[in-house]
TrEMBL record:
Family label: Belongs to the ISN1 family.
Record protein name field: IMP-specific 5'-nucleotidase 1
GO molecular function: 5'-nucleotidase activity; ATP binding; magnesium ion binding
One GO-annotated biological process of the protein: inosine salvage
Keywords: ATP-binding, Hydrolase, Magnesium, Metal-binding, Nucleotide metabolism, Nucleotide-binding
EC number: 3.1.3.99
Catalysed reactions, semicolon-separated: IMP + H2O = inosine + phosphate
PANTHER family tied to this protein: IMP-SPECIFIC 5'-NUCLEOTIDASE 1 (PTHR28213)
Top-level taxonomic group: Eukaryota
Reported cofactor(s): Mg(2+)
Subunit structure: Homotetramer.
InterPro entries reported in the protein's UniProt record: ISN1
Length: 73
């Protein structure tokens, strides 16, 4: 599934963000796999996923957010 088109981020209040949060609330591991090849440059991934990360804020996920992973090319 493509999360965003033409290099754009997806909205923090999108249905997909809410679904990913629900998975984390069920204490499941969640991984986003991207074709973006930023290597170990976490800041670039953070920028691309800012909408998702913003959606995580204030949701009271606590330690559950540690079960969220991003894998890149």
């Amino acid at each position: 599934m493509t999360l965003y088109a033409d290099g754009q981020d997806f909205e923090h209040d999108s249905a997909l963000v809410h679904l990913l949060i629900r998975l984390l609330e069920y204490d499941l591991y969640v991984c986003v796999v991207t074709a973006a090849g930023y290597g170990d440059d976490a800041g670039r991934y953070e920028g691309r996923l800012s909408g998702l990360l913003k959606g995580f804020e204030g949701k009271g996920l606590g330690k559950r957010v540690e079960k969220f992973y991003v894998l890149g090319k």
